[in-house]
Amino acid sequence: MEPEQIREGYLVKKGTLLNTWNAVWVILSEDGVEFYKKKTDQSPKGMIPLKGATLTSPCQDYSKRALVFKISTEKKQDHFFQASHMEEREMWVKDIKRAISCLQGGKKFARKSTRRSIRLPETVNLSQLYAEMKDQEEGVKEQRVERDNKAFNYCFTGVTVVDWLIFKDKARNRPEGLMLGTGLLNEGFLQPAGDTSKEGAHSVEKSVLLDQTDALYYFADSGFFCEGYSSDEDVLLKEEFRGNIIKQGCLLKQGHRIKNWKVRKFILRDDPAYLHYYDPTKEDDPLGSIHLRSSVVTAVDYVPDAKKYDIEGNLFEIISSDETHYYFQAATAEERKEWIKAIQTVSKSGK
C-alpha cells in the first residue's frame, strides 16, 4: 500500500550542497517527506525518510531567517525548511513530529481525537463555542504582548481563555474550562504562540492548553503574527503596512513582463487594503503590492500563456481599480476559495 499523504504545500528549503534557499512543493506522508522543484513534477527532487529522524523547531542555525525548522535523519543528514508564517510552520511541525512518533511506536498516523483523548461531552459544539469566543463585542479580547524581545500581535493567554469560559457559563470551574480549552486546541481552533504554549501543545503523549499567564495562544484564522523589535521606524510607519494581517501564505504568481510563473509569499492586509508579495527565499522588502480598494477578484479557468508553463487548475484573477490584471494559482480548490473570499472582503471594507 502507498503511504498516506498527510500534508502538502509550498515551503522554502535550503540546498543540500549549496547554501541556497529555494521554494519547493513538499508532501508529507506517513514515512517520509518528499520535495519537488514544481508542484506539477512527476518525480520528487528528493526524499527524506522519517524513521529514526528528529525535528528541531524553532531552529536557530540560521539566525537571519525566521520560521525555520530542521529535520535530522537517522544518518545524521540535516534538512532545513522555512515556512511563510508562524501558523504554517506549527502545522507542519506538529504533523511531522507525530509521523516520527508513530514510526517509532509502530503505529499508524492518525490525528488525535479530541473527544476520546479528553472525554469531551457529545453535547459540546466546539465550532459554535469558537464563533462565540471570536465575537468582537462579547468574545475573548486579542492583545499585543511584548516578551523576550518579540511582539506577539492578536493573541491572548491561557488564563484569559479559562476566565472567559467560566465568566460566560461555558464551564463551571477551572478544570472544566481547561478541558474545553484543550478541546479547542486539539481541534485546531486555537494555536500556540510562544515556547511555553508550544511545549504543552506539541507533546506527543497529550496535547494540552496551559492555564498560565505566560502561555500565549491565538485564533487559527486571525491576523496573528510575531515580530522582533525594529529600529526602522520609516518602514513601520508606511501607510500601506498599517493594516491588520488578514491572511498570508504562498501562491504561484504570473509575472507582468515575461509572463513566467514563480512562487511568491503573500500578505493580505486591511485598512488600508493591500496585498504585498515577497520572494519567499529572502528576508527582503516586498517585491510589489496590489492596492485592493474597489478591485475585483474572480476564479478563472484560463490564463494567457499559462499552459506554456504547465499551469492548470485553481486559478484566480485580481483586476485592480486602475484595470491592471494579476493572475495567481492556489495549491488547492479550497485554498483558492479562501483567498478569493478574504480578498473580496478586504477590497470592500478596506481603504
Keywords:
alpha+beta; 8 helices
Task: Give a nutshell description of this structure.
This protein is of the alpha+beta class and 351 residues long.
Supply the number of helical segments.
8
Distance between the termini: 53 Å
**Computed Rg:** 21 Å
* Derived structural class: alpha+beta
Topology as a string of helices (H) and strands (E): EEEEEEEHHHEEHHEHEEHEEEEEEEH
Proportion of residues in β-strands: 25-35%
Number of strands: 19
The level of helicity is 10-25%
Spatial sequence of strands, sheet with the most strands: 4-3-2-1-7-6-5
pLDDT under 50 segments (min length 5)? 111-117, 229-237
Description of the molecule:
The chain is of the alpha+beta class. It has helices at 86-105, 114-118, 126-133, 158-167, 174-186, 195-201, 233-236, 333-349, and strands spanning 5-14, 21-29, 32-36, 46-49, 54-56, 68-72, 78-82, 143-147, 150-157, 190-193, 216-219, 225-228, 244-254, 261-270, 274-278, 288-291, 296-300, 315-319, 325-329. The strands form 3 sheets. Strands 4-3-2-1-7-6-5 form a 7-stranded antiparallel beta sheet, covered by helices on one side. Strands 16-15-14-13-19-18-17 form a 7-stranded antiparallel beta sheet, with helices on one face. β18 and β19 (325-329) form a beta hairpin. α4 (158-167) crosses α5 (174-186). The longest helix is centred in the first third of the chain and has 20 residues, at 86-105. Mean pLDDT is 84; it is low at 111-117 and 229-237.
